[in-house]
Write a structure and sequence with these properties.
It contains 4 helices and 8 strands, in the order ββββαββββααα. With 147 residues, the chain is of the alpha+beta class. The chain is globular and about 45 Å long. 37% of the residues are buried.
Length: 147
Amino acid sequence: MIVFEFLLDEGHAHGLGHMTVRGPGEVSSQGRTPDASMMLFLSIGELVSAAHRLMTTPNLPAARFDALDSSFGLRFERSRERKKQGQVAVIHGTTTIAVVSQDELREALVASVVPFTRKHWRTIASDPAVLDSMRSALRDLGQPGSG
């Protein structure tokens, strides 16, 4: 099991916010020194893009997500163990947050990205770069590209 959570800092003009990833392990950009807040909308697009790249490129052993304007990042690694084929490890630094199937990873991203996008659609739609990034992320997740 894996869960992605996004928290938008409402007081910031540039869509700054935080990401938390929970599985058996947990990591968050929140509460770090130095501050690890990120350009959240664009970072979500990059997160989905990295996961999608790993899931759709059969020979790619790993894909990296680096949040925009932040030191926060994740690595998605394909399991090399024969008994765990089709599994993806979600890793932050040296900590494995979860090992899940590709379907579980995609479902977790859909379950977090789609409601977040709907909730903040007006803000997303007001910035062409953010709109393009989020539409691309929704397409990668097999979802309609509008709020």
